[in-house]
Amino acid sequence: MNLQVEHPWALALLVLTGLPYMFSGLTAATYPWLSLIPRDGLSEASGLALRTIGALAIAALVIGLSGLQRSERKTERVVEGAQMVIVLDRSRSMNDTFAGDTPTGGQESKAAAASRLLLNFVNRRPNNVYGMVAFTSSPIYVMPLTSKVTAVRAAIEAAGDHGLALTDIATPLVMAAE
Hints:
By secondary structure, the chain is α+β, with helices and mostly antiparallel strands. The protein contains 5 helices and 5 strands. The mean pLDDT is 81.
């Protein structure tokens, strides 16, 4: 694993991790004779644990500020299948059946039919890479190209709900092509 630091000067702040051990944050109480006070091992262990947690929190903040990250690596993938962008209509007209009526009983809306058919298509072609753009009166960027079929299925199922507004097909087609 190749790690790199974006701001190496920030690592100098790691010396601040010693602060919880130097200062307790408690006020000192004076007793006439300290031998009268029994040692409390649980309190001492708890105090040490809290100081260690504080030091670790400071170290995590400093490392986060320094911009610790893995260096870039390229992964080549060879897959069988196509890259497809699904452009799905989410307009109000998709709430109706193909006869133009509101679905009742066993009738299916156009949106539900489209979701069913697209899910069937995706299930038969799991090696494809899919992206998704929905549209109403403006495009809705849903998902970039991905090979994660479960995410694609979830996006298609979510698009089967109620439609939103009017239809404008031009801008979503441009977005899908981009």
